[in-house]
Amino acid sequence: MDVSFEVRHKDLLGRVGRLRVGEKTVETPAFVPVINPVSQVIPAREMKELFGCGIVITNAYVLYRRLRQEALEKGVHRLIDFDGVVMTDSGGYQVLQYGDVEASPVDIALFEEGIGSDIAVPLDKPTGLVRRGRAEKTVEETLANVRATMRVLGPNPRCAWVAPVQGGVYRDLIELCIDEYRTMGFSLYCLGSPTPLMTSYNYKPLAGMITTARLRLGVGPVLHLFGAGHPMLFSLVVALGCDLFDSASYALFALEDRYLVADGTFRLEQLSALPCSCRVCSSTTARELREMPEQERFRVLALHNLSVCFEELSLVRQAVWEGRLFELLEKRARSHPALYEAFRHVCDDERLAEALTRQTPISKRRGLFVYDRLSMRRPEVRRALASLESFKLDADGCDVAVLLNYRATAVRNHSRLLEKVAELVESEDFELLTYGTPYGLVPFSLVNVFPHSQTTFPPSLVRDLEPQLVSEIIRRLKQARFKKIVILDWGRDVYPGFVRGLAAALRQELEAEVVVLRRR
Ligand SMILES: [Zn+2]
């Protein structure tokens, strides 16, 4: 089966792209709903009609045990009545849940080929949350299964085969797994068994696992995450480099009378109104929903939950396209303290920061919203700070530096502004620098360069960062050896007292003469 992947837009490690599998195409990132082949609460065909769903995943092991002959005769697409991309999981998760499978890896693989699966996973041994020794064993077994499977399938298998990466929370095992698969020539990978982490809200190690896998893989291969769970995680898993992720949460939550929203979950009995306008919620009330017969309620809730998942997926795609995925992460991080913890961990991970910065475009369709210290960790800000650091402030050999409130630069006529500054300073020989943004000292020649004038921030952020900003300004000015520093106190101060504080600090720390001039 021919597989190709085209990246069209990227932001952080997330990408909007097109995955071609044989004759079929899937837009990524893709949420891949889990279909129970025995009883579909929402038929796959309906998912396609209602939400444009192009890919689903179903369990080959369940088919093998319960509908083997029918599946082989009809093929999996006819069996589940879906003409999009069908991915089959081999039953690895059932191994985790119910013990050993009554079929060999090769039996299942030949079955997956036999039923015409588009994307297939060899039988793996999910690691789950176990001790080191046990984790090593699952990796060994998974690798042995995959080797045996690929040997039997030969060089031209009918399905696109995915390499199942195991190793649980042990980074080196994940890396070992990936290194082994690389020698086998896989272009699709899936990261296994984070479900125990999901159900215990343990998102930090989950983020670590995805990061490890993506950094080891590089940006080329397509990465699928097994069991992405709640839609509030979608932006995070995409930002860390997952192109596909499956989830059965729409049905599992519905089964427990739980109503999903993008940033949380309500129990049905807690709802007084339905905070959604999907086709379900716009035609019923919370009370009517509660009073529905069980089977109908399950279906209707699953339909709403599914709608929330697809809506969140669209939002994530839009955020990648616009270059605002970080801002979506910041919002979703507030959905749950555990997710916030994972987000902070991601922001502080220096090995990840470099990769995120490398993959994030240099300019964006939209400006940046920067809120707090965490926002300051976003790649555009890091990159801007690094480029300011390499900018020599006294390259022209001027003796005088003029510090101008950044607000005063928001005028159309910059040459008129420069004339006014020259009049006031009574010289044409000065280096003009701006202050008052979270970026510290920004040379006037850069104020219109992305992201400086495209950054929107609350003044309270500058106040929060003041000690750090002032000491950075002092450090930079000391390096530059100006003889005189003129602070132009024009327009509204960044916040009351900022200029006074800055001038006092400069006078104390610099040998240069420091003068504050107000507008005449
Ligand atoms: Zn709804």
Automatic annotation (TrEMBL):
It catalyses: guanosine(15) in tRNA + 7-cyano-7-carbaguanine = 7-cyano-7-carbaguanosine(15) in tRNA + guanine. It holds the Pfam family TGT. It comes from Caldiarchaeum subterraneum. The lineage of its organism: Archaea, Nitrososphaerota, Candidatus Caldarchaeales, Candidatus Caldarchaeaceae, Candidatus Caldarchaeum. Belongs to the archaeosine tRNA-ribosyltransferase family. PANTHER family: QUEUINE TRNA-RIBOSYLTRANSFERASE. Residues 14-337 form the tRNA-guanine(15) transglycosylase-like domain. Keywords: Glycosyltransferase, Metal-binding, Transferase, tRNA processing, Zinc. Binds 1 zinc ion per subunit. Pathway: tRNA modification; archaeosine-tRNA biosynthesis. The keyword Aminoacyl-tRNA synthetase does not apply. The keyword Glycosyltransferase applies. Zn(2+) binds at C276, C278, C281. One of its GO terms (molecular function) is zinc ion binding. Substrate binds at D124. InterPro entries: ArchSynthase1/Queuine_TRR, TGT-like_sf, TgtA, tRNA_ribo_trans-like. The gene is tgtA. The active site is at D89. It comes from the Archaea. This is tRNA-guanine(15) transglycosylase. Gene3D superfamilies: Queuine tRNA-ribosyltransferase-like (3.20.20.105).
